[in-house]
Each structure stands twice: as C-alpha cells, then as structure tokens.
Fold this sequence. Notes:
It is a single chain. The chain is α/β, with parallel strands linked by helices. It is 36% helix and 28% strand. The strands form 4 sheets. A 6-stranded mixed beta sheet has the order 10-6-1-2-3-16. A 5-stranded mixed beta sheet has the order 13-12-11-14-15, sandwiched between helices. Strand 8 and strand 9 (142-151) form a beta hairpin. 40% of the residues are buried.
Amino acid sequence: MISLGSLFSRQVAPLLGIDISSSSVKLVELGRDKSGGYVLERCAMEQLEKGWIVDGNIEKFDEVAEAVKRVVKKSGSRTKNVAMALPASAVITKRIVLPGGLSDQELEVQVESEANQYIPFSLDEVSLDFCVVGPSLSSTGDVDVLIAASRKEKVQDRQGLAEAAGLKPVVLDVETFASRLAAGRLIDNLPGQGAGLMVALFEIGSMTTSLQVIKDHEVLYERDQAFGGAQLSQLIVRQYGFSPEEAETKKRSGELPDDYAMAVLRPFVESVAQEIGRALQFFFTSTPFNRVDHIFLAGGSSALPGLAEAVMQQTSFACSVVNPFEGMAVNDSVRLKKMAREAPAYLTSCGLAMRRFLS
C-alpha cells in the first residue's frame, strides 16, 4: 500500500492541496461554513523556472522544495497536512471486478494477485493502492475496484518534496482524478445538474494539454496533446526579440507592445482553438460519439482573452472557462481580483484540497 496514507483516504483535519506542474506550484486550502458549503480559505501560486520539472519528473529537487516553502508562506497557512498528486502518466490505473463481501484483508490479497497481470514491474518496485468504487454493473453480487500503482521512486519524490518543505504528506492522488473531482462541482451546475451531459474538460498547461471527456462523473476518454501556453512565450520571443525570461515576465504582467494583441495573441488563440477542435475530432473518430454538450477550459492559459469564443466558433459547442471556486464563500485573506484572474489554474489543487471532505 502507498506508505503515506491511502490515495482515496478521508481527511477531516485541515489539508493543503498542492499541485506541482512544469511551470508553477499552486496551493489551495478549503473549509466549510455552517451550512456545509465550501469556503476558500487560501490560495497562492509560485512560478517555477523552466527545467525544474520535466514530464512530471522533479529535476531540481532543492529549488522546487524551496518554491513549495515559499507558496505555503505566501498563503499564510499554518496547516502541515498536504495532498499532492502524480501526473497520470506516472500512475497505472485499472478497474477490475472482484467478489462482493470480501474483508479488507481478502480484498488486498485479491488486488495484489490481479495487479500482477496489469503492472509491468515487480510489485516490490511499486506503491499500490485500491478502492471499492461500488457494486458492479456487469456482474451481480460483485464489486468494481479501482487499482492505482506507481513506481516507488515517483511516490518517494513527492513525499520527500513535501517533507523538505516542512509538510506532512497524507494523500497522494492522480492529477486527472483531482481535476475531475473539482470539475464535478461545476458540471453539477449545468442544466439538469449535468445529468447525462457529455463534458469535454481541456486543461491547457505550459507544455501539454489534456482532454478528459466526462459523463455522469465517469471518464469516457482521455488524451494528452503536446501544445500549451509555453508556445505563446516562444512566439513573443520570436516577435520582439526578448529573452525567454523577459517574455514570460511580460506575458504575466501584460507589459507588451501595442501590436501584441493582433500580431501574436489572436493568431495563438486561433491555433489553440484549432488544436482543441482537432482533439475533439480525434475523439469522435475513435469512439461511437459525435458531439459533446459542453467544453470546459482550465489551466493557466485557458483565460486568454477570446479563447472560449474562438473554441465555440471552431467547434460549435458551448464553451466556458472554469472557476473551481464558483459558488464558494471566500475568506477575507484571499485577494479577489488576483484569485479571479488565476482561478482556472487552480482546478487540480482545488480538487486535492477537496480530498479533506471525502467520505
């Protein structure tokens, strides 16, 4: 079992959700009000330099640990328990059917036996976890069980990072699971509480854009594409001759030449919309489906001016940029304007913070 507590465990004590991507560290802490609604207690972000995290691997451990320390300090939180996540590419997940009525110990034995068939490493080299999803729809009296396994060194990297920053890792999740959990709240706000709706969730990262197609909280399709916000920085470098660091800084601050919106931003937004259109076409040609009901855009680059409109024009499907804090009360310590501007980047960290309240 994963040594730092169950992947799916319930955490009632205060918990930080910390998402580490190739470009930044995002922190969210949630509470509950008297009526049971979510309260955004804290959120903070710290940028990472290029090359510190590559393909989900921590290449500059000390520098990233310092960035985690800084983001906790910036947030003002004194909470030590933390939920972190591994990229989906570092985790093997498999849904299996097992007999109902087994004890936890019997389940564990069965899971280890089944896992041997699906995991291309020795079980000694992996951290393995599982949870019972519910009664099996395909086999009466049996249960669906979700297995998750990752190489031990990947788990230990995240655990070590938290500990180096003075935190206590208690939950290790999968990034796509966490983002899906946070998106689930927003899907429930769609017409008919989202029942039966097909939702395409695009998370536009720095280097990679991931697509999950979700219906009734189940994932029908997942795919990653190699494009992201870093390409906008490269275009700024080429157009204006800035250094990569300058381009990144000016992109965030908005201090760019007058022709930036027309010469660089608009063509980039159109190319992102085309990539999203292509990703959906690939989904339609490789599955029995031919439409989605709604497109959600998340990630740091999703809030680019005009992107949601360009995607609607490209695909003819309804599209919106997500705010994972929608409908939440907000603590006075949170800077509302900054939070609203950066909200789409916090989807995964918000899902991690929600782990505190899972039964």
